[in-house]
Backbone:
């Protein structure tokens, strides 16, 4: 099938293949083989060197080189260190982490132990949102089974290395995906970020050096150890190695999780794997990078997807959300939708994010309601730049991206809203106008009888009229009219 | 220490490693504006959440702007504090803050004293380009503190004071996004919390979000009521700070002018809480010696150390946090309440005035006193011993309202019989003062010898926790001192764990003691002001003819005429109190 032809499964290798509640199934698929190899054959430095050579970068969004992160944490002297798995997946529509944890929990446990071995930590913590009950249940089973097999706990595989894993539950705050906020939440404090430095690798959980990696990042580790860094680094582009899982959604025929080599083009994803746009409509944009990402136009369809290309195009990798939009989507509304999300998920600590995003959202609302001005578009740009420039954490520093990228790529749509008071995609209700064409109206009174607000007047068998000041643009008249006498502009 | 070189606004500077950009800039005379940041030197208190983003600066090679307060300077950094990019960002952030702030400056309690107002002026904001929804929250009025949270700018200073410094933990940020705000848990009211009303949140709030309950109106009405006799008492720390409200240097003593002003305001009798402080020493000192001597004679039931009980916030603190230890503090009422009880009995009898017709007003450096005066145990048939409490700030407002040219006032003397005090009574206003005053009296009563010296430098200072051993003529008395409730907590935990070796401990809730009280003129983050007030207090002490409480002739006379002796039944009834377990009261 085309949908699978272009995919390469590393992180998702065992999902749907093994019974995640049977460790034997996982072991049959090489689980804990890499851990054994590390503990018996490699020094921590050799493992870190292997990860560095592989070119693996953080899959949570930042794209920081994983091996380097491990090395920094290893080099900090401390009596106690921690490995933290960030399973606070929060991007709307993204569920790759959940899939991995539900389908192959051992790959994450194994990788955390390998990380612990490398950095000198004997405790791992999985910070997972409480909204993932199945993932939590399967992780608990997996931890128990791994302990029973001596693959976690004291003296793993007789190597003298101890590693235990505990769970910590989040309450579903998006900002807790930011590592300092995540750590504060684990400490029982309010989940809000603090200024970096100090980075968690120096001062993290309970003030101790802490290595935080995302679920998908961890899921890649055993494969890199088993198949070698060289094998892994052959996949992908020059600076982005391996594969990336994307949550494909929106106006596309095949939706769901896909895993493709870095460097795959958006066109391949949209038209080959995704099977093209629903109902044969015209492709308009693809939004990548979750709520803080950007909207790319058809001009970027042939751009190979990797960390740097997406940033250069004004978007980002993020955790891998990919939402496809067609000609019926209004880009101003899309920007407003994403901002609504970040607005609610801002921790409120810093002013530009707490108040700035609110003001951006209000200006966008004004535009979609037909009250915007050209100056408002300028103000959006200026304010967006300041929010990016002054916000405390990654959330605020990227929250205006949907606004900036839609203005950059679809400025004509914004202009249509403010200058012509028209929504080209026909999505902004306030900008719609229903009219009755006198010549076509038979005076059947169907619209008159169905209008919920009494905006239509007229005598039987005579043309009817819509009072624009009363019309709520519900579209009932348009649907009911049997003579196509009602126009929508 | 390692040093680093950097340039700020083209000025080259060498600073120690670990210096923040803000501090480095200050060293070359560049004051980067800040709003949420607050550093109280000497007290070891710092608030730098990095949230206001007013102090952002441009660092060459850095992607985004850096908050100067919480970014360390690095070798080779090139920093601009007023580039176009910085100024634009700073003003935009300020406009955003103002866009969610009520424009009520003209009628705001904080007008003229508001850091936000000053910053808007400093940044030259003439228009707010971003308009939209403003946050609205329910106002919360407690017996002492008003929370007008619409005015909160999330600087988190109050949180730092409440959680880190006082370890009370009532105030913290709640909710997300635009709705985030600082509040007690579940948006409960303060009076349904463990709040001690210490007022340190009020003392540091940069806006009008946290203010004291204003009682000046009630005082004005009492003064205008010809059927009432209105007496006023002023706490020791007031005279060392009130001058600041009239442009005088911090640390200027204004005792004489204060008395003159109160007389011109129309109070019938101007008395001194310092008198009652001397009385407190008589009671508390006697209690200390009783307990000590029983302890020394082998009484196993006696509880030591004895803890001072002058501070109402401290009393509420242990009633909530350490109810199992409520029999350890002295049972002596605070000087303010002792004054009220004596005024409405002894003095009322002297005047032949009914207690209902005698109004007692207190001028306090404290907002918790507003709460304390309302406690049921300090009322007789519903009539409180102290009717109204106004803070140093409220008194200043009252003086200004009454067209009194404070600085031109002559120095006047307190009235008698409740106006005379010893130097021991004065030093109640600073950390270490109560216990030093107690030592001066307890020593002489215990040893029956005259003190060889009156200044106990070992008890003075600004260290959060201090300890000293005072030689009571061969008997070493171990004394502990804590100011700030977080420090108090440490000493209490030691007592709980049986590790404490102190005989007596003085505790004051506010950093610095009453001189740093929540009702004092705002220090705006300059802790050196507290030190100056402290020096003034000690100066007043050393200028006094009488410096030991038990030598105050009016105290001697009060016992002779009215109370009998310290800890007598009458004294017990009027001057002592009991404590309550308050844990149940705040259960949610």
Residues:
């Amino acid at each position: 099938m085309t949908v699978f032809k272009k995919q390469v499964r590393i992180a998702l290798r065992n999902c749907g293949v093994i019974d995640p509640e049977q460790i034997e199934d996982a072991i049959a698929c090489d689980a804990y083989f890499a851990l054994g190899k590390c503990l018996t054959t490699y020094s921590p430095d050799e493992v870190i060197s292997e990860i560095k050579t592989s070119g693996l970068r953080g899959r949570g969004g930042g794209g920081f080189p994983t091996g380097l992160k491990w090395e920094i944490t290893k080099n900090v002297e401390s009596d106690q260190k921690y490995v933290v798995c960030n399973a606070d997946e929060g991007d709307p529509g993204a569920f790759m982490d959940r899939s991995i944890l539900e389908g192959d929990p051992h790959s994450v446990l194994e990788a955390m132990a390998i990380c612990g071995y490398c950095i000198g930590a004997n405790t791992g913590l999985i910070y997972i949102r409480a909204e993932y009950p199945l993932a939590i249940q399967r992780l608990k089973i997996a931890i128990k089974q791994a302990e029973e097999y001596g693959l976690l706990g004291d003296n793993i595989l007789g190597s003298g290395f101890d590693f235990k894993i505990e769970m910590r539950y989040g309450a579903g705050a998006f900002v807790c995906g930011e590592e300092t906020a995540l750590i504060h939440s684990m400490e029982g404090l309010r989940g809000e970020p603090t200024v970096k430095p100090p980075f968690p690798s120096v001062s993290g959980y309970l003030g101790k050096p802490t290595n935080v990696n995302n679920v998908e990042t961890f899921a890649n580790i055993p494969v890199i150890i088993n198949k070698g860094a060289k094998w892994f680094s052959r996949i992908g582009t020059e600076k982005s190695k391996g594969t990336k899982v994307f949550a494909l959604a929106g106006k596309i025929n095949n939706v769901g999780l896909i895993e493709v080599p870095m460097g795959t083009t958006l066109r391949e994803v949209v038209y080959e794997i995704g099977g093209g746009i629903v109902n044969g409509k015209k492709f308009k944009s693809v939004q990548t990078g979750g709520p803080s990402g950007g909207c790319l136009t058809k001009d970027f369809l042939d751009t190979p997807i990797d960390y740097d290309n997406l940033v250069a195009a004004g978007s980002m990798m993020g955790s891998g959300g990919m939402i496809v939009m067609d000609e019926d989507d209004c880009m101003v509304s899309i920007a407003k939708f994403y901002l609504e999300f970040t607005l609610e998920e801002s921790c409120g600590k810093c002013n530009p994010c707490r108040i700035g995003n609110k003001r951006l959202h209000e200006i966008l609302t004004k535009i979609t309601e037909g009250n915007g001005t050209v100056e408002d578009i300028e103000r959006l740009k200026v304010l967006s730049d300041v929010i990016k420039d002054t916000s405390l954490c990654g959330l605020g520093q990227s929250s205006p991206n949907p606004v900036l990228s839609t203005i950059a790529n679809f400025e004509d749509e914004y202009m249509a809203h403010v200058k012509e008071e028209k929504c080209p995609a026909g999505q902004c209700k306030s900008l719609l106008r229903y009219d009755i064409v006198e010549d076509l109206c038979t005076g059947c009174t169907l619209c008159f009888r169905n209008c919920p607000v009494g905006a239509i007047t007229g005598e039987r068998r005579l043309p009817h009229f819509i009072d624009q000041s009363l019309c709520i643009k519900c579209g009932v008249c348009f649907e009911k009219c049997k003579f196509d006498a009602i126009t929508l502009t | 220490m390692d040093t680093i070189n950097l340039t700020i606004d083209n000025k080259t500077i060498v600073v120690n490693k670990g210096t923040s950009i803000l501090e480095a800039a200050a060293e070359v005379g560049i004051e980067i504006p800040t709003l949420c940041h607050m550093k109280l030197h000497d007290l070891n208190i710092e608030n730098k959440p990095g949230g206001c983003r007013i102090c952002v600066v441009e660092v060459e090679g850095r992607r985004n702007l850096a908050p100067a307060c919480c970014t360390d300077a690095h070798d080779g950094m090139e920093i601009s504090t007023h580039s176009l990019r910085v100024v634009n960002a700073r003003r935009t952030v300020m406009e955003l803050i103002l866009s969610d702030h009520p424009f009520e400056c003209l009628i705001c309690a904080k007008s003229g004293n508001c850091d936000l107002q000053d910053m808007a002026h400093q940044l030259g904001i003439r228009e707010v380009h971003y308009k939209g929804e403003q946050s609205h929250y329910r106002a919360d009025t407690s017996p002492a503190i008003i929370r007008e949270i619409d005015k909160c700018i999330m600087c988190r200073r109050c949180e730092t004071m409440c959680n880190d410094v006082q370890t009370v933990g009532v105030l913290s940020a709640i909710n997300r996004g635009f709705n985030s705000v600082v509040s007690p848990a579940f948006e409960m009211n303060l009076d349904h919390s463990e709040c001690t009303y210490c007022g340190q949140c009020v003392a540091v709030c940069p806006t009008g979000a946290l203010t004291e309950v204003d009682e000046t109106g009630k005082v004005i009405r009492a003064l205008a009521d010809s059927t009432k006799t209105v007496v006023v008492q002023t706490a020791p720390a007031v005279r060392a700070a009130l001058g600041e409200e009239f442009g005088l240097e911090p640390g200027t003593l204004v005792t004489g002018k204060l008395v003159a002003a109160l007389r011109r305001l129309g109070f019938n009798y101007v008395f001194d809480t310092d008198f009652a402080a001397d009385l407190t020493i008589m009671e508390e000192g006697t209690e200390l010696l009783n307990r000590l001597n029983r302890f020394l004679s082998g009484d196993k039931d006696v509880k030591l150390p004895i803890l001072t009980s002058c501070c109402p916030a401290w009393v509420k603190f242990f009633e909530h946090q350490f109810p199992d230890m409520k029999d350890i503090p002295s049972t002596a009422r605070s000087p303010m309440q002792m004054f009220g009880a004596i005024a409405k009995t002894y003095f009322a009898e002297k005047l032949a005035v009914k207690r209902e017709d005698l109004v007692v007003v207190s001028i306090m450096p404290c907002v918790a006193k507003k709460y304390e005066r309302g406690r049921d145990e300090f009322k007789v048939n519903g009539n409180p011993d102290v009717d109204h409490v106004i803070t140093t700030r409220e008194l200043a407002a009252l003086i200004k309202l009454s067209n009194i040219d404070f600085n031109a006032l002559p120095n006047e003397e307190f009235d008698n019989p409740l106006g005379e005090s010893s130097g021991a009574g004065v030093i109640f206003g600073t950390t270490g003062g109560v216990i030093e005053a107690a030592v001066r009296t307890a020593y002489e009563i215990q040893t029956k010898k005259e003190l060889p010296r009156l200044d106990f430098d070992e008890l003075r200072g600004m260290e959060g926790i201090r300890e000293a051993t005072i030689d009571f003529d061969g008997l070493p008395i171990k004394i502990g001192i804590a100011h700030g409730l977080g420090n108090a907590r440490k000493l209490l935990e030691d007592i709980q764990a049986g590790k404490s070796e102190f005989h007596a401990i003085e505790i004051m809730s506010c950093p610095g003691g009453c001189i740093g009280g929540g009702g004092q003129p705002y220090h705006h983050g300059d802790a050196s002001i507290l030190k100056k007030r402290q020096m003034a207090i000690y100066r007043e002490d050393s200028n006094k003819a009488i410096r030991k409480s038990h030598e105050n002739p009016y105290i001697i006379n009060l016992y002779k005429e009215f109370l009998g002796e310290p800890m007598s039944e009458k004294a017990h009834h009027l001057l002592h109190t009991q404590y309550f377990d308050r844990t149940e009261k705040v259960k949610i």
Summary: The radius of gyration of chain B is 25 Å.
